[in-house]
Amino acid sequence: MNLDNLLTLDTLQLAKAMLGWRLRLDSEEGSYEGIIVETEAYLQGDPACHAYRTKTKRNAAMFGKPGTIYVYQIYGMHYCFNISGNEEGIGEAVLIRALEPTLGIELMKMRRNTASLKNLCSGPAKLVQAFGIHMDMNFWNVRTDALSLIPPQNLIVDNDIITTTRIGITQGADFPYRFYIKGNSFISKK
Fold first, then answer.
1. Is the pLDDT of residue 75 over 80?
2. Structure pTM?
3. In a domain, 62, yes or no
4. In 10 A of CB 170, how many CB atoms?
């Protein structure tokens, strides 16, 4: 499956199909890459979705063309990022929860102030910090900008995907919209 085909999937399918794809950032400091091992879907009718009520200045990127990057701050100090799904004008996105780091590891360790490979990208705020993703990347698109998606070498089959409920939310917490690669030690938590 190529990127154009991936981004035609509905948001729930997209969250699952992104597993195994590589996230890559090419910056002035270097290149970073990691395999997507955990995602969560946020749908417009979902009370946990930032676009649940209406389009705002904060969540406008979620309504962009499929593949639009949505960067936002949580808890007043951490950042997370999503990739929009569905059609333009529908506020839905996939939160990238965890990566298995594969390139740019030494700089990631410096940014995260840790020597632990497993602690670099095993959570949405951790991977943003490790990659140096920032608010200026809000509204970028994985089709055209330096934060991109690369197809997997091997597709992840359904038997190797765990579907479960999302983490760290109160509303919509029982929806089975979280996906991760079975047995992968880089996920945020089981």
1. no
2. 0.95
3. yes
4. 7
